[in-house]
């Protein structure tokens, strides 16, 4: 450290500091990594100093925001973690219809701040996910089919590049960097310090929840997959297939319209099987945010997934059901998220987010508590992923999976080549790198 000209600034946590254990924790507690230092940046200058310090000390870097990377790509052993989570202010320019959001914001406080002004952005459902990782990889949630992906609402970014310089990108200036920041994945080109988003007025929404018993699972999957991606785009929905032991399947969704219209739109779904519960109600948008916040806090998990471009055949659905019958953990599940609508109106090459034509995406979810449960669950989810490969096309960069060998194709399809060019321009020395980062060559 003595050979460095640049001093670290911000809140700096070293391994012998009392806050180190908390500072190194990842949302996925399957991982336990020991960085050389963690810098909680409070100003843009702290980010610049940290990048320069890392270069001068030949220390590998990871950018971090909400700590939700599935493969813990935002933390590392013996390197520097440049954490932006203490830069989380929101500046609304309501007349312009935009908000400048610092790169460390997390979703629930952000939604609450915007809701107080009667607006929102179409982000994800988990309250603690960070705006940075979510936006840079795409970002979908319960408003996606009407308002697009979060990255489709991104208008500009400010980023510290590999030389420690502040770079601005919008439609006119460094437009290639803005293109890459719309779905090219976090951690690849530099450390983003703020985003400018288009905001949308929001008030009440209509929401639904339907539950069926396990024997209806096949019929419900068949009906949902031909309905959810094509129904009125003001309705975004999810379907959750639980294990046979848990014994149920459920669907829920959010509609930007009246309750009676939603009742009407739901008819094909409520006619499938014998629903044991159908609930439709109108609530303030912020209550819907809390309703869909699902899932536990930090825990051990291995999730992966796949885009579905064409309705799954009977054989494919039988494969899903088989894996839910033999699941080693009762709490494992498969979650289907409807897409199309606004997502498909943008051509795949227009932004780095490639999978615009998919009907929906499936997430294979496994979680456990004790270490001896890890191996059976990880094997199960990998076998499930492999067994479904012949029916699906690619997956989401924000659900990275270290087992995917041809990840450039799976995450980015034909857009990978352009991403390499952007990488070469903004980080030719590959300072920002990790197991599945975009390479400059
Ligand atoms: C419980 C849970 C729920 C989720 N729900 C959704 C959902 O509803 N919709 C959805 O689309 N996705 C969802 N995801 C996936 C989520 O989008 C990704 O995990 C995302 O990468 C998390 O971003 P983060 O900032 O929280 O994580 P981090 O681990 O901090 O970062 C993720 C990646 O971005 C990089 N990064 C972080 N900050 C910056 C920065 N300032 N500049 C450049 N790179 C940076 C990191 O280096 C890392 O590679 C969910 C994930 C979890 C664990």
Summarize the structure.
With 441 residues, the protein is α+β, with helices and mostly antiparallel strands. The protein contains 14 helices and 20 strands. Helix content is 27%, strand content 23%.
Describe the structure.
Strand 8 and strand 9 (166-169) form a beta hairpin. Helix content is 27%, strand content 23%. Helix 7 packs across helix 11. The protein folds into 3 domains: 11-83, Uridine Diphospho-n-acetylenolpyruvylglucosamine Reductase, domain 2, CATH 3.30.43.10; 90-201 and 413-426, Uridine Diphospho-n-acetylenolpyruvylglucosamine Reductase, domain 3, CATH 3.30.465.10; 204-391, Vanillyl-alcohol Oxidase, Chain A, domain 3. The two termini are 31 Å apart. The model has no long low-confidence stretch (mean pLDDT 97). The protein has 14 helices and 20 strands. The strands form 5 sheets. Strands 15-12-14-13-18-19-17 form a 7-stranded antiparallel beta sheet. It has a 5-stranded antiparallel beta sheet with strand order 5-6-10-8-9. With 441 residues, it is an alpha+beta fold. Bound molecules: flavin-adenine dinucleotide. Flavin-adenine dinucleotide (FAD) is lined by residues 27, 62-70, 73-74, 84, 103, 124-126, 129-130, 132-134, 136-141, 186-187, 191-192, 295, 398. Keywords: FAD, Flavoprotein, Oxidoreductase. One of its GO terms (molecular function) is oxidoreductase activity.
């Amino acid at each position: 450290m003595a050979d460095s000209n640049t001093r670290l600034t911000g809140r700096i946590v070293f391994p012998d500091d009392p806050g180190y254990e908390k500072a190194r924790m990842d949302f996925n507690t399957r991982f336990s990594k020991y960085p050389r230092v963690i810098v909680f940046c409070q100003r843009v200058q702290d980010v610049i100093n940290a990048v320069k310090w890392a270069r001068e000390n030949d220390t590998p870097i990871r950018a971090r925001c909400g700590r939700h990377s599935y493969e813990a790509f935002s933390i590392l052993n013996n390197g520097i973690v440049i954490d932006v989570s203490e830069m989380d202010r929101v500046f609304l320019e309501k007349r312009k219809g935009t908000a400048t959001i610092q790169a460390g914001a997390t979703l629930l406080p952000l939604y609450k701040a915007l809701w107080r002004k009667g607006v929102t952005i179409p982000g994800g459902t988990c309250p603690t996910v960070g705006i940075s990782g979510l936006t840079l990889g795409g970002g979908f949630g319960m408003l996606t089919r009407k308002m697009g992906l979060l990255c489709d609402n991104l208008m500009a970014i400010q980023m510290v590049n590999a030389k420690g310089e502040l770079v601005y990108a919008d439609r006119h200036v460094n437009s290639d960097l803005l293109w890459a920041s719309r779905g090219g994945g976090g951690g690849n080109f530099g450390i983003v310090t703020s985003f400018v988003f288009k905001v949308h007025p929001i008030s009440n929404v209509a929401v639904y929840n339907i539950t069926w018993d396990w024997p209806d699972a096949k019929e419900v999957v068949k009906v949902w997959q031909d309905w959810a991606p094509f129904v009125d785009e003001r309705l975004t929905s999810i379907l959750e297939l639980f294990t046979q032991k848990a014994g149920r399947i459920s669907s829920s969704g959010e509609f930007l319209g009246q309750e009676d219209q939603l009742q009407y739109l739901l008819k094909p779904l409520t006619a499938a099987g014998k629903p044991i519960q159908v609930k439709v109600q109108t609530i303030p948008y912020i209550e819907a945010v809390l309703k869909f916040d699902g899932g536990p806090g930090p825990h051990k998990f291995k999730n992966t997934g796949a885009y579905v471009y064409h309705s799954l055949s009977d054989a494919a659905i039988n494969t899903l059901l088989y894996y839910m019958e033999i699941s080693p953990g009762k709490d494992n599940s498969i979650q289907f998220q409807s897409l199309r609508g606004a997502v498909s109106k943008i051509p795949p090459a227009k932004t780095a987010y490639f999978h615009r034509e998919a009907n929906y995406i499936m997430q294979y979810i496994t979680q456990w508590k004790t270490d001896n449960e890890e191996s059976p669950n990880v094997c199960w989810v990998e076998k499930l992923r492999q067994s479904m490969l012949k029916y699906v096309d690619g997956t989401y960069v924000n659900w990275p999976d270290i087992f995917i060998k041809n990840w450039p194709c799976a995450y980015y399809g034909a857009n990978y080549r352009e991403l390499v060019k952007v990488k070469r321009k903004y980080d030719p020395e590959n300072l920002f790198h990790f197991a599945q980062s975009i390479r400059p060559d």
